[in-house]
Design brief:
Rossmann fold, 19% strand, globular
């Protein structure tokens, strides 16, 4: 009896076993930086680089977003290359592309040299299309300035995270929005920022805040823009906050909007940036005609 009591006391004095390490969260990967560039395949021009690297929040819908964008680009008769390797941001590789698309890329993904290569691509007039989490708060300050709006403040959570709401399409002449109704009913995770797009941005569509439940901290005085474009020198910059859920990447209306955005960023459609003397546009003889496959893929068939 006494022996059992002593044994119990000794066991009680033993340190508790260390808890098992938590399983890594696939939606919040550990940040990593790439040093060895990917091998690029042969690319015809125009060419689109699709980047989905995540040093911030990782969206499950990347699995649907990347192939959907690849199909849009292919339907245009353009070529594309998709990667999660940010070492593709080097002068030799970027010289082979006309447009960069961020397919829910997030975080500060660049080494200093990679950042400089990306900025040089923009400086020489390369196009950029940022989608959904390209607008979140994980990006460096220079990228936020390129995007052209304020700092990310969040989005509704819980039961209100995904809501159907009305988007007011204020400009239906742009290639990305000319197919949209004046009020577009859409379900998504709606981002907010602490400032609207910059004065040089052209707002294409805004959230009607009265059409959904939105806490005061997510309301934006003076307008809640979700889709806009701007010029960065000679470069065409486009941003859309849409595209959190997988369903967005098979929705014909959404895909048609993206198709128009990519075409505009790649100089196949639309007017020059505010009359700036920009780089020569892409040879329109190769890309101006829409094929039946292109129209069907973009939801206009």
């Amino acid at each position: 009896m006494i022996a059992n009591l002593i044994i119990a006391m000794l066991l009680a004095l033993q340190p508790a076993p260390a808890p098992s390490p938590a399983a890594p969260d696939p939606r919040r990967p550990a940040p990593a930086f790439d040093s060895v560039p990917p091998d690029l395949p042969p690319l015809s021009r125009p060419a689109v680089l699709i980047v989905s690297k995540t040093n911030g929040y990782r969206h499950d819908s990347i699995a649907e977003a990347v192939p959907a964008i690849e199909r849009l680009v292919k339907a245009r008769g353009w070529s594309s290359f998709a990667t999660e390797n940010a070492a593709v941001f080097n002068p030799e590789a970027l010289a082979r592309f006309d447009v960069i698309v961020f397919a829910n890329a997030s975080g500060d993904i660049y080494t200093p040299d990679q950042r400089a290569a990306f900025q040089a691509f923009i400086a020489r007039g390369g196009g950029f299309v940022g989608l959904h989490s390209a607008g979140d708060g994980s990006h460096p300050a220079w990228f936020v300035k390129l995007r052209g709006n304020g700092q990310f403040t969040g989005h509704p959570g819980g039961a209100d995270q995904f809501q159907a709401a009305d988007l007011v399409v204020g400009d239906r002449t742009h290639p990305a929005t000319r197919h949209l109704p004046a009020r577009w009913r859409w379900t998504d995770e709606y981002y907010s920022w602490d400032a609207p797009p910059a004065a040089d941005a052209h707002i294409l569509a805004s959230l009607d805040e009265s059409s959904l439940r939105l806490e005061p901290e997510y309301r934006m005085a003076g307008g809640h823009a979700l889709i806009w474009w701007r010029c960065e020198g000679r470069a065409r910059i486009f941003y859309s906050a849409l595209g959190h859920k997988a369903e967005a990447w098979s929705d014909p209306t959404h895909l048609a909007m993206l198709d128009g955005a990519i075409g505009w960023a790649g100089w196949a459609e639309g007017e020059e940036c505010d009359g700036h003397p920009c780089r020569p546009p892409i040879d329109r003889r190769a890309v101006s005609g829409e094929t039946a496959a292109h129209r069907a893929q973009a939801g206009r068939g």
